[in-house]
């Protein structure tokens, strides 16, 4: 059973936290003059912080190979955590070292810029935090009309300016640039990150396939279904999400993630069901058919999660509201498995795609339980397959609080963590 745990996630954390900074620390330790021995620890902190800043920039490019291993939500969580940790180490570095002139100026500018960006990002871009603290969530809602999504994206990119300032800060320090092995690693990391970032931006804006909006319909109150005709095949799996933007419409030019409704087929048409929660999603209701769409993807691990556990035939799906969307394509594509669906919404009219679910009920291996309002834990537990702790996989989609609740419940009743999977769109 141990093989069902995602060791790739732990390995990713280990490499970023320890392996990536190691060459910088080792070369510094071997080459720093003894005259600066009182500042050795603080200098090491600065080097680690820089390595983590570069790793965060790399993760922001959404490397698809890593997404299929650990999932984009966990990738963005690592991005956020190491960014915060880098700023903390930058504080220790700044407070425990002495410098003058442009060395001090560039270091201070970088630190204060990063500190300001940290506060902004925690409020407007760290959904994993705002979903857990209601006060921060309300403050974010107050300011969202001013700091719209595109504005937040561009403000967040000031991290690149801070990183450049740190780069300049380092190359101005004579006793550090004299350590040739360190500078080789320093330049190598910096150039690789720069090339990766520039390539990713070029890829997103120029080389990824585009599509055309062929249908835009309201399927429930404040929920629109977009049908996109792709001009080129994408590597899509059931349960995936794609990033889309509308390059000809002001305010909608930055990429946004949305899940597939339909299982990917050969007709190059994908369906997205989107609730109008923010400035970007609310504007989708007015986009006319025929509008060009930029599409980047696919991303996601729902189907990959099942593929890695092909010996399990029972799948239990817990869905809430619009959180059912990525799971619809999973249910469509995995008709050979026994599926139990537990689906809730605040109102009856918010239960999406009832005709699909009714049709699947006729196929024999599918059982759906739908209701208005949340399920009581005991209701779900008594309807689970026999020996569900060992013979079932659990997929969860919905509000963050709901997903965390069901993870706790299933773990409490003996379901291993490696049998549970959910993707939180909190970024």
TrEMBL record:
PANTHER family in alphabetical order: NADH OXIDOREDUCTASE HCR, PROTEIN RFBI
Every FAD-binding FR-type domain range: 206-305
Segment forming the signal sequence: none
Superkingdom to which the source organism belongs: Bacteria
Pfam family, one: FAD_binding_8
Organism this protein belongs to: Lentilactobacillus fungorum
Keywords, alphabetical: Membrane, Transmembrane, Transmembrane helix
Membrane-spanning segments: 41-59, 71-91, 111-130, 158-176, 182-200, 312-331
Protein name: FAD-binding FR-type domain-containing protein
């Amino acid at each position: 059973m141990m093989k069902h745990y995602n060791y790739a996630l732990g390995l990713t954390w280990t490499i970023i936290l320890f392996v990536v900074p190691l060459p910088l620390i080792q070369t510094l330790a071997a080459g720093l003059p003894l005259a600066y021995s009182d500042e050795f620890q603080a200098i090491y902190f600065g080097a680690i912080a820089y390595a983590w800043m570069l790793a965060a920039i790399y993760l922001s490019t959404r490397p698809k190979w890593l997404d299929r291993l650990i999932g984009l939500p966990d990738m963005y969580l690592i991005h956020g955590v190491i960014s915060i940790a880098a700023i903390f180490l930058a504080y220790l570095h700044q407070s425990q070292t002495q410098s003058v002139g442009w060395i001090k100026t560039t270091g201070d500018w970088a630190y204060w810029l990063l500190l300001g960006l940290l506060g902004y990002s925690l409020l407007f871009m760290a959904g994993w935090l705002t979903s857990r603290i209601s006060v921060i969530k309300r403050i974010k809602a107050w300011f969202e009309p001013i700091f719209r999504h595109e504005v937040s994206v561009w403000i967040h990119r000031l991290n690149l300016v801070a990183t450049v300032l740190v780069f300049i800060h380092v190359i101005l320090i004579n006793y550090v640039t004299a350590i040739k092995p360190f500078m080789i690693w320093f330049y190598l990391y910096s150039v690789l990150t720069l090339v990766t970032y520039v390539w990713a931006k070029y890829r997103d804006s120029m080389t990824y396939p585009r599509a055309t909006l062929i249908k835009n319909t309201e399927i429930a109150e404040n929920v629109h279904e977009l049908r996109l005709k792709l001009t080129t095949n994408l590597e899509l799996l059931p349960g995936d999400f794609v990033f889309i933007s509308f390059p000809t419409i002001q305010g909608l030019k930055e990429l946004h993630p949305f899940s597939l409704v339909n299982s990917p087929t050969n007709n190059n048409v994908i369906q997205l069901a989107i609730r109008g929660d923010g400035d970007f999603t609310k504007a989708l209701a007015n986009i006319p058919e025929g509008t060009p769409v930029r599409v980047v993807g696919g991303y996601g691990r729902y189907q990959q999660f099942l593929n890695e556990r092909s010996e399990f035939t029972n799948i239990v799906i817990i869905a809430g509201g619009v959180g059912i969307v990525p799971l619809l394509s999973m249910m469509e594509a995995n008709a050979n498995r026994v599926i139990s669906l537990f689906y809730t919404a605040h109102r009856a009219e918010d239960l999406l795609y009832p005709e699909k679910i009714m049709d699947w009920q006729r196929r024999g291996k599918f059982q759906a339980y739908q209701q208005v309002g949340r399920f009581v834990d005991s209701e779900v537990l008594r309807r689970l397959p026999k020996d569900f702790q060992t013979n079932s996989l659990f997929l969860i989609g919905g509000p963050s609080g709901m997903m965390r609740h069901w993870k706790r419940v299933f773990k409490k009743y003996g379901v291993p963590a490696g049998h549970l999977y959910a993707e939180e769109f909190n970024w």
